[in-house]
UniProtKB/TrEMBL annotation, chains A, B, C:
NCBIfam families in UniProt: microcomp_PduB (TIGR04501), PRK15415.1 (NF011944)
Organism: Megasphaera cerevisiae DSM 20462
GO MF, any single term: structural molecule activity
Stored Pfam families: BMC
Main subcellular location: other
Protein name (Swiss-Prot/TrEMBL): Microcompartment protein
Length: 268, 268, 268
């Protein structure tokens, strides 16, 4: 009977305190199905949701009064992807999506967010001639997004993020300075002090070319508590640099708290 | 007996975990009485507190050494209103307060805050010839503040904010670019992606004039995870635009979590 | 039996919800020993950890590819100190450390952080001819850091921070504009409204010279919800100004929540 009562109490506690009370800032949830896409909202603009409180939306024809404020250029049909937690995963997912569809990147903005964590959220706008292309791109990005949370590791003290692409496309080029068509790697940690050591570890581990170094107060971040290194190069070298940083990052962030855990499943 | 034990356990759990463990970021508390004004602090500068961890203060005569740092211009008597959660509600409340008192807006600053939420806090400074005028303005703003949290809706994933004024005054003009004396409306959502659709919905719903479009990285916000649209126009049109956006906003934010709830009671 | 079951349930609840659910944002933890230094990580870069999720690191020879991105100037050996919560305490601790060692301040950056709180985190980089000097400086800073959290007071609504140095050195000069070799004081509060009154209180309490006034939107902060006043002068006057502000700050922040508590033990 004790066991039964214990379960009853636990259910009551979870219901009253909210199910996410114990979820670290770096982790996230989705109400969607296995593909990460939830479609029961009844608005034509709605495409779906995914990890990191990410929502995917489309507008078939943006009102002319907003076109200039939003710097949409020639496009009126847009896709919108944005979340509370994560800029890197969404940028990677949209990079895949623009490769696979007839769309272009209009803008990538990085709010200071992660729901109390050390990093960014995201707002990415995609342009298309036809709204069906925008919708397909947004769907693709939402579907692939969980993969790119795989090398986001977190504990109570902060987070680590690593990304790797064998061939960078337009979104990585625009948002992070990647060399188009070449392999791309990223190391990131918050608190930022750890990110400094990861950057040094990555460039010492293999022959890569630095395309961006971002820090809290000297540009590249929105005052997030992160140091981010972006680099291009041959795929073998880029991957080796990222992998070396993953090993070091887990040890250093682990010194401040529990062993850092992947948000989904590591892919690098 | 199970029921009795269950209650005992729940009380213990709440006591140990703190009563606010289940309070969404967009919600807020006050220790004040029904008017929202708490006066038992014993400092002449103190006026009261209200929702959003908002405090109201006055300084009868700011020290000359600070006057220039603070850009007070001709004023030495100031009223100060600032909170952790909410910039829109405080701006609306102070707009009412300056209409009703012999005071002027000196500055409106928007910290990146909301205690882990997606939006801003606020710091508003009011100037007056006489400290009694400043105090009256601060009291007025604190009293009316809960009303303007009425169309702030939140869930675990983010928040929506809507404001409407039949006749904008100096605070809305200075802080948000409203046309003085005309009706003013605002739509806002975090994550910012939802705010893009709300902006488009509002301008399509009625004939209004856009006076401001703010986004995380392109100005108008302090890197908050919000897109904010401000518009002026005839009162019927402005209200219609805001109302259309409320319907859409609740559906879209609801796709990321629970049904969004008003912080107090909707007024629009 | 009820009592036994109650404990069992509480343990289960704590395990499932995480032990930090009830820890206010302003409080912090360390896994380190009494000196605040944890050394069991197995990386030569690692020095230790301390309060505020602060980590201390060294790099014996920064890779040439990063030297320019990081603006290291003539240095290749660096010490790194950074945390999620607190910029003032880390700046004070590093100020002590550079006095005691053969090192120089390279940069001080202030992310918008404190894990959902109203203030900053920190990233401080120290240069040295020899990595053993950098390591000694980082160790010194980590050891003294808990002292400088002594006059950081917090409750659910926000925080207060006060610092005092009898003789400011290079870190206080570079980061906060202190006059080198003179006494230095700082008052700070979030929500920022309280910080305005503390600034006025401090300059009225004693004859000090203002060297910096920072606010959320007008410079000196990274959009944190704080007003910060920095001042130099004779040690008696500076201390008197700080002490007057402490009394007022506790009353005002206390009006928004519980009595503000020191993070460690007050030293001023």
């Amino acid at each position: 009977m004790d066991q039964e009562l214990l379960e009853k109490v636990m259910n009551q506690v979870k219901a009253e305190l909210g199910t996410n009370a114990a979820v670290p800032a770096a982790e996230t949830q989705t109400k969607g199905d296995a593909t990460g896409i939830n479609t029961a909202v009844g608005r034509t603009e709605f495409v779906g949701t995914s990890l990191g409180d990410t929502i995917g939306l489309v507008i078939a024809s943006v009102d002319p009064m907003l076109k200039d404020s939003m710097n949409l250029g020639k496009f009126r049909s847009i896709g919108i992807i944005g979340g509370r937690t994560g800029a890197g995963p969404q940028i990677m997912a949209v990079d895949d999506a623009v490769k696979a569809t007839n769309t272009e990147i209009i803008s990538v903005e990085l709010p200071r967010d992660t729901k109390g964590g050390a990093g960014h959220g995201s707002l990415i706008i995609i342009g298309a001639e036809d709204v069906s292309d925008a919708r397909r791109a947004v769907e693709t990005a939402l579907q692939v997004l969980p993969k790119y949370f795989g090398d986001v590791y977190g504990n109570d003290a902060g987070h680590l993020e690593f990304q790797y692409s064998a061939r960078a496309s337009y979104c990585l080029e625009k948002a992070l300075g990647a060399k188009f068509g070449k392999a791309f790697g990223m190391t990131c940690a918050g608190p930022a002090a750890i990110g400094v050591v990861l950057a040094d570890t990555a460039v010492k581990a293999a022959n890569v070319e630095v395309v961006g170094y971002s820090s809290p107060g000297n540009g590249g971040t929105s005052y997030s508590n992160e140091v981010i290194l972006c680099f291009s190069g041959d795929s073998g070298a880029v991957r080796q640099a990222v992998k070396a940083a993953i090993v070091v990052g887990k040890k250093l962030l682990g010194a401040l708290g529990e062993k850092p855990k992947s948000t989904t499943t590591p892919y690098i």
